[in-house]
Amino acid sequence: MNETDIGAYGVPLAMLAGAIRVSTPFLFVSLGECLTEKSGRINLGLEGTLVFGAMSGYAISYLTGSPWLGVLAAGISGCFFGAIHGYICKLPKVNDIAIGIAMMLFGTGLAFFFGKPFIQPQAPHLPSISLGFWSDLPQVQSALSINPLFLVGIVLAVFMWWAFKNTRWGLIIRMTGDSAPAALAMGYSVDWVRFLATTVGGFFAGVGGAFLSLYYPGAWSEGLSSGQGLMAVALVIFARWNPLACFGAALLFGAAGALGPALQSVGITQGYYFFNAAPYLLTLFIMIASVSPKRSLKGAPGELSITK
Amino acid sequence: MSALAQPNAPRRAVELETVAMTKIFGSLVALEDVSIHVRPGTLHALLGENGAGKSTLVKCIMGFYQPTRGEVKIDGKPAVIATPRDAHAHGIGMVYQHFTLVPSLTAAENLVISRAHPPAVIDWKKEIKGLEAFLDTMPFKVPLTVPVSNLSAGEKQKLEILKQLYLDQRFLILDEPTSVLTPGEADEVLGLLRGMTEAGDLTILMISHKFREVSAYADDVTVLRRGRMIGGGKVGELSVADMSHMMIGDTKIRERAARKTFTDRPVVLEIAGLFAEDDGGIPAVKGVNLKIHGGEIVGIAGVSGNGQSTLIEVLSGQREPTEGQLFIDGADFQPVRQQMAKFKVFGLPEEPLKNAAVPRMTVAENIAFRTFDEPPIASRFGFMSPKPMRKQARDLIASYRVKTPSTEEPIENLSGGNVQRAILARELSGEVEVLIVANPCFGLDFASVSEIRSQIMDQRNRGAAVLLVSEDLDEILELADRVAVMSGGEIHYVRPIAEADRASVGMAMSGH
Ligand SMILES: Nc1ncnc2c1ncn2[C@@H]1O[C@H](COP(=O)(O)OP(=O)(O)OP(=O)(O)O)[C@@H](O)[C@H]1O
Ligand SMILES: [Mg+2]
């Protein structure tokens, strides 16, 4: 390999590259969670949805030879998980958080069960778009070789941000999330809106899973997810339920995840595992720094069981 | 100017009747054979004491509850109303007793989404223009682009009414629409509505506890008592005494105890240099100093949203002050359970169901909150025995006349006034040294108002230091020994009651 030495600049560049690469699953799961929470329900099961999406996406890509069919399959399986969560939560005296945890275990367990035969074979990967052609530096080129899903995620974030303000459905979702009595008084079915929001949110999380197995790291294994689905919940709180801020927060988490490998690439191997823990530390730090016992969370949907 | 107005088919005021309406909750008959008739183009008042079934009746009309028996007739024809949506389709709209605006949405968003068929993609430029044109035809304004959570209670109430007018409803049900409005605002709103009924555009069914408004604005009244229709008629033919007699029957209203005079009572509660922030981290209480003597009621007047609720939250231990100190009898006071018990500090916060009760726990448990960890309820090993708890609850329910099916009813099922009585029973049953009360008579019928004010006066006469925060200036002028005015988080005006007059207090309330 003929790498041009760019010295210490390598670290921020590698982090940028990492941020773009690693952030996509964070982005999709957090957008899914954001949508669900805006409707007044928390789905902690998205970790399970993510893992199952990764498995089913990989399997379908392997079986059909089309990675994009894999992404679609992952999304549909995500819908399915979201729908189960949404349906069970419609029943009386059911707690959405408990169901979420059950769905998380159910999703990962099911994925491991069906995923056994797909650990070895190589499935076709998602292509990437090179946006770094203008530079001679191979590091820049590799940093800017971007997966189309990342771009789709950006468009989706902007669309959701716009839609929450400017569409009928956006307002209905925010209304059910903030005041169920108001929605009822206006004749909307709160359960039905939440069911739909959870189902569509599941779709997004499934797509995020497909990215994991079909692009980066790019293979199906049981240790594929490192808790992205759960961290996304923290990320949504950090982003104050704003889809655009979800994008920024996903990039930040992605960059933190890339810190360990980036330092390693410039030869700093000491504390590798410590730096690899950066995203978890960041989660913890953000949760502590962004909440206060004296203030209520700005922007939190009023119907969420954690803020109620 | 509403989006739904159809110029070629003008919809006129609706006539509405209920026929033998009955609603049974479990073992409780909340409504029994209630038949009322609201003539088109009139303002019809529905009166009754707390828990009489007024809200239940109108919720049955709206399809919010399904009546056990009975039906609704619109313009003489039986109508099937299974959900609020059906009611809206018949041109019936309602302003509920508790707000149904979405707090995080702006006024404009709330108005647009409440329409029967909001557009899939909303063109805000066009909508705002339409809304402004609509507001121009109204005598009062509300800011359109601010989240509703930032509006004052009065603005929210006006927005609720504007929302129904914007939807172009022809029959409007208002459940205590003026309880959060100042008398001036109430006149503005009721004047507008009265004008619309006189023009034949609208019929109104209004629940109210205020005789002044009923006499001034209503055409007809119907009175409910314990779920039954007891009487009614034309307003001009009924005196206030007739109406109040229909409401409570021969029950005697308690006479207010005379104000005992004390000389040289020591300072009991002292608030020194208190600063506090609200939920958003914005300073809401800015340097409040106040001394309250034993046997004295200090009334804090003010328009809602000027820091009174934050002040009460600090005093009742719900919020940490950022600066300042509290003293009782000269000793440092922290509003925690032990010290409250030691210094005998009690309180009735506003919205007691939210601030002083656990809605889903039973009446008996809620009444035991001050005493469950002491004998006789708590035994030596910290186990609770339910028998003394129920006995205590039964005694207090009887002596404070709380209307509840049993001690084991979840407190949230009680009517507003009875929740207030239950909490008051808990807070006043022991010896009281300091009493902190906020809007104690909000939404209560006249008999309960008189009862609760007497209780407060009794505590004062027994030597308690009472801090009374109220948005109702009449209440303060009636009860207080000294009047203070809070505006913008500060207390500007403190006068003995003899030197305070309505005009100067009003000036101070508006921040001058
Ligand atoms: N959802 C419910 N479940 C059980 N009981 C109820 C329910 N709603 C109301 N009640 C009971 O029905 C009776 C009538 O209540 P309602 O709310 O209609 O009174 P109200 O006349 O509106 O009183 P207020 O002036 O205090 O608002 C009360 O005894 C109340 O406890
Ligand atoms: Mg009521």
What is the 3D shape of chain B?
globular
Strand content of chain A: under 5%
CATH architecture heading of the largest domain in chain B: 3-Layer(aba) Sandwich
The unique ligands bound to this protein are: adenosine-5'-triphosphate, magnesium ion
* Elements of chain A, N to C (H/E): HHHHEHEHHHHHHHH
**Total DSSP helices of chain B:** 17
- Spatial order of strands in the largest sheet of chain A: 1-2
Radius of gyration of CA atoms of chain B, rounded to a whole number: 24 Å
Helical percent range of chain A? 55-70%
Family (chain B): Belongs to the ABC transporter superfamily.
Keywords (chain B): ATP-binding, Nucleotide-binding, Sugar transport, Transport
Protein name (chain B): Simple sugar transport system ATP-binding protein
Pfam families (chain B): ABC_tran
Can you walk through the features of this model?
Chain B: Keywords: ATP-binding, Nucleotide-binding, Sugar transport, Transport. Chain B: InterPro entries: AAA+_ATPase (IPR003593), ABC_carbohydrate_import_ATPase (IPR050107), ABC_transporter-like_ATP-bd (IPR003439), ABC_transporter-like_CS (IPR017871), P-loop_NTPase (IPR027417). Chain B: It holds the Pfam family ABC_tran. Chain B: It comes from Kaistia dalseonensis. Chain B: GO terms for molecular function: ATP binding. The complex is a heterodimer of chains A (308) and B (512). Chain A is mainly alpha-helical and 308 residues long. Chain A has 13 helices and 2 strands. Chain A has a two-stranded antiparallel ribbon with strand order 1-2. In chain A, helix 1 runs parallel beside helix 6 (148-166) and helix 11 (243-265) runs antiparallel to helix 13 (278-290). Chain B has 512 residues and is an alpha/beta fold. Chain B has 2 domains: 16-248, P-loop containing nucleotide triphosphate hydrolases (Rossmann fold); 267-344 and 431-509, 3-Layer(aba) Sandwich (Rossmann fold), CATH 3.40.50.300. Chain B is built from 17 helices and 21 strands. Chain B has a 6-stranded mixed sheet with strand order 7-8-9-4-10-11, sandwiched between helices. Chain B has a 6-stranded mixed sheet with strand order 17-18-19-14-20-21, sandwiched between helices. Chain B is globular, with a radius of gyration of 24 Å. Chain A binds chain B through residues 166-169, 171-172, 174-175, 178-179, 181-187, 292-296, 298-299, 301-302, and chain B through 64, 83-85, 88, 94, 96, 98, 100-105, 109, 112-114, 118-122, 124, 277, 279-281, 319-320. Bound molecules: adenosine-5'-triphosphate and magnesium ion. The site of adenosine-5'-triphosphate has 17 residues of chain B, from strand 2, helix 1 and helix 14.
